[in-house]
Amino acid sequence: MTALAPGSTIGILGGGQLGRMLSVAASRLGYLTHIYEPGTAPAGQVCAALTQASYEDMSALQDFANAVDVITFEFENVPATALDLLAALRPIRPGTTALAISQDRLTEKTFLEGLGLTCAPFRDIGSLSALEAALTDLGTPAILKTRRMGYDGKGQVHIRTPGQAQTAYAEMQGQDAILEGYVAFEREVSVIAARGVTGEVVCFDPGENVHECGILYTTTVPATLTGAQRTDAALLAGRILNALEYVGVLGVELFVTSNGLIVNEIAPRVHNSGHWTQAGCAVDQFEQHIRAVAGLPLGDGRRHSDVVMENLIGDDMDRLPDLLATPDTQIHLYGKSEVRPGRKMGHVNRIVT
Ligand code: ADP
Ligand code: MG
């Protein structure tokens, strides 16, 4: 495929902070972006065109597709009917297969195990009796998760004793779920990797992640890993990318255990735990994704600095004056006017060396 010519338009499904940073990266490479977002759109402030319409609005989707040259997304839960309509009109990168697989935790884990990768033990839960049987099988503690639409720890219930099955099941409110055995991990890391249109694969260095209340709080690079673990992380990311014939950036969340790396989940898009690349690499994850989607050669992915990325969540914004005065600190704000508890308002990248 020939690379997208300068001045072409990249359509982005989803107008949150990820879409915003993708849009900025695209404009640096001479492209225009058109954002499609049903709700509030921080990305709408930095794009050439914005469509605010629902993912059920077939006529708005059709107009959007006709106005762009290629389509990508920052949000993986776009309904299948919308994707089918869009895919008939324009290339979607990464493909609709990657999206369909990662929209459902059961399909995702089945796919990952099919590649020979290790996941937490899991069971499909369609009823209370299935949950009770699975708890007998996997033991406690365990985590019940909705199969679809979960993020930032939402849609999850920790089960500490078998007696909690009924209340946990009620919390799923009839949604399909999976039960996962608890992984006693040493640390959590993620690897952000990219695959280009010609099949080349580039991995960023794994980052070490700390969550608070289910939300990512910090990512530190380099992560505390052995050389063998680093190699494993890159190889398994490459295997996933190739299997999906993927084009773009993929985030892979991993648990580090004494028995090796366990894949927690994959995100078919740029990832919060990859924001450190903005200060640590010449080509960050956003430019890397746009390069892939536009059919350009990928950047090298090499890390030139150690970085600590910290999310600014809710009231963390009160620390802004201090952060602005801190040396070697890059500040990214998402243009959201209303501060709410748990809302990601921005992040900072502190260069450590
Ligand atoms: P989300 O889509 O909300 O990010 P995750 O499946 O990544 O959902 O779970 C959020 C966090 O919960 C993980 O980063 C990890 O800290 C913890 N967690 C999830 N699954 C397990 C598990 N099977 N064992 C131990 N901890 C888990
Ligand atoms: Mg996660």
UniProtKB/TrEMBL annotation:
Pathway assigned in UniProt: Purine metabolism; IMP biosynthesis via de novo pathway; 5-amino-1-(5-phospho-D-ribosyl)imidazole-4-carboxylate from 5-amino-1-(5-phospho-D-ribosyl)imidazole (N5-CAIR route): step 1/2
**UniProt-listed GO biological process terms:** 'de novo' IMP biosynthetic process
- Would you tell me the Gene Ontology cellular component terms? cytosol
One MF term in the entry's GO annotations: phosphoribosylaminoimidazole carboxylase activity
Q: What class of enzyme is it?
A: ligase
List, alphabetically, the Pfam families matched: ATP-grasp, PurK_C, RS_preATP-grasp-like
Catalyzed reactions: 5-amino-1-(5-phospho-beta-D-ribosyl)imidazole + hydrogencarbonate + ATP = 5-carboxyamino-1-(5-phospho-D-ribosyl)imidazole + ADP + phosphate + 2 H(+)
The Enzyme Commission number assigned here is: 6.3.4.18
Which keywords does this chain's UniProt record carry?
ATP-binding, Ligase, Nucleotide-binding, Purine biosynthesis
Annotated InterPro entries: ATP-grasp, ATP-grasp_carboxylate-amine, ATP_grasp_subdomain_1, PreATP-grasp_dom_sf, PurK, PurK_C, PurT/PurK_preATP-grasp, Rudment_hybrid_motif
Question: Binding positions for ATP?
Answer: 105, 145, 150-156, 180-183, 188, 211, 264-265
Q: Which residues form the ATP-grasp domain?
A: 109-294
**Assembly and oligomerization:** Homodimer.
Query: What is the recorded function of this protein according to its Swiss-Prot or TrEMBL entry?
Result: Catalyzes the ATP-dependent conversion of 5-aminoimidazole ribonucleotide (AIR) and HCO(3)(-) to N5-carboxyaminoimidazole ribonucleotide (N5-CAIR).
**Which family does the similarity line name?**
Belongs to the PurK/PurT family.
How is this protein named in the record? Answer: N5-carboxyaminoimidazole ribonucleotide synthase
Organism field: Jannaschia helgolandensis
Which lineage is the organism of this entry classified under, starting from the top rank?
Bacteria, Pseudomonadati, Pseudomonadota, Alphaproteobacteria, Rhodobacterales
Q: Which gene encodes it?
A: purK
